[in-house]
Amino acid sequence: MTAPNQSKDREDKAVAALISAILHVGEGDVSEDEIRKYLKSGICLSSEDEAALQRLGSNPMELVSKSETSLSGQPTETEFLAALHRKKPAGGFSPKTEEEIRKKREELLAKLRKKKSGH
Amino acid sequence: MSVALIRYSYKSQNRNKDILVGLLFTCEYMDAMFPQADRSAAMTFLRDKEDYPWLNRAMQTTAFEDDDLDLQARIGLLGTSKEKEEAVQLLFKRFARPLMSYMADTFADLTPDERASAVHDVFIAIYRMAENGTLDTDKPITGLLFTIIKRRGIDIRRKNSRRIRTDVELTDEVGDYLVGTETGRDWSLAVTLGKANEVSEAFRQFVLTLKGQQRRIASVMADFLPDWLSDQEIAEEVFSRTGQRITTMEVKGAKNALLAKFRALLKRQFS
Predict the structure, then answer these.
(1) Which of B125, B151, B259 is the closest to A12 by Cβ?
(2) How many pairs of residues across A and B have Cβ atoms under 8 Å apart?
(3) Contacts for A112-116 with beta carbons within 8 Å, 24 or more apart?
(4) What is the ipTM of this complex?
(5) Which residue stretches of chain A have pLDDT < 70?
(6) What is the CA B107 to chain-centroid distance, rounded?
(7) CB B21 within 8 A of CB B6
(8) Cβ within 8 Å of A, B 106-125
């Protein structure tokens, strides 16, 4: 027979395990459902978060040159971010790739025009 | 001024709170009137409320505008360097605050400066991906922004900790703790009845209302199964992540409070 203390301990651990599973932030993609609530109007940040965001300024591009150090100085474990360190070929993309980019841009522009004209 | 108001009441730490919130109230007003915990709870309430047609209309408008903005940004990101920069600016203007809010909810153990840096890193990452041709412009950028920042948060958290194990280990072993327990049986029943997600979401929302040590301990518990860390090691982990010292008694107290809350939410499904 299981002693009451042992049984309580097992129950506590079962609840704690469920809590870990529920609160754990895994590496999977963030779902649309999760994102939706952050896109609604009226986002309120704490004064500390607000101040921290303001300290970095309103133009992330100003940090691009500095970020060489920032991003590469902090080792990341995910392949996803590691891929960001890949560089554009020194001589630019091949003519074929450039053409594909141009076509893709035209395609998206057409899509945007269509949306804006309400069709 | 036409202000749509909702009277919102909730109980928190034995206090009865009764506050008025409305979409047209500015953050500054909320800042001046209510402490952070109250504002967060009120905003969570607003976000989750589906019963207000005017609120739903406002949200749908935002969704349409976001679709256009996303498309516009992708076009820019396929353009010249200057157009790419403008696209990043456009995205930053719209998504910096939502991303910061997501980080505050998901990575409460990180400092505000770490969270803000992560926000900036996301936009730099998008620019880099566009520059080196690894950005998939067939897919919306919005989801990618949140996924990048989540992974960035995980990376920072791992850098602050040295104990975190892989996701697979955690998810594989959870079931072992449930076998042969009443909690396991209750959870199975909640899954069968389709109530498990409701319990999970209610618990996550509860954790978002926590402050200080309890919140920090919850964020450590999220990365470790019960036998992986002793209370002393949880206190050390909190210190290593946040620089805040806590006692094992505080760890025990916070853990008990979290367990009790979860049990109550689970049991409520069957009452």
Answers:
(1) B259
(2) 257
(3) A112/B68, A112/B71, A112/B72, A112/B75, A115/B67, A115/B68, A115/B71, A116/B68
(4) 0.71
(5) 1-2, 63-91, 118-119
(6) 7
(7) yes
(8) 106-107, 111-113, 115-117, 119-121, 123-125
Q: Does A112 contact B68 at a Cβ distance shorter than 8 Å? A: yes
Our measurement of the distance from residue B71's CA atom to the centroid of its chain's CA atoms, rounded to an integer in Å, reads 26
Burial of B82 (0-12, 13-18, 19+ CB in 10 A): exposed
Residue B178 to residue A78, Cβ atoms within 8 A: no
Residue A101: per-residue pLDDT: 82
Could you give the C-alpha distances from B14 to B11, B17, B142, B237, in angstroms and in order? 6, 9, 39, 30
Mean pLDDT across the stretch B46-59?
Answer: 50
Rounded Cα gap, residues A43 and B47, in angstroms: 10
How many Cβ atoms sit within 10 Å of the Cβ of residue B243? 9
* CB < 8 Å to A87, chain B: 132
**Backbone φ and ψ of B21, nearest 5°:** -130, 150
State whether residue B196 sits within 8 Å of chain A by CB.
no
Q: How many CA atoms lie within 13 A of A80 on its CB side?
A: 19
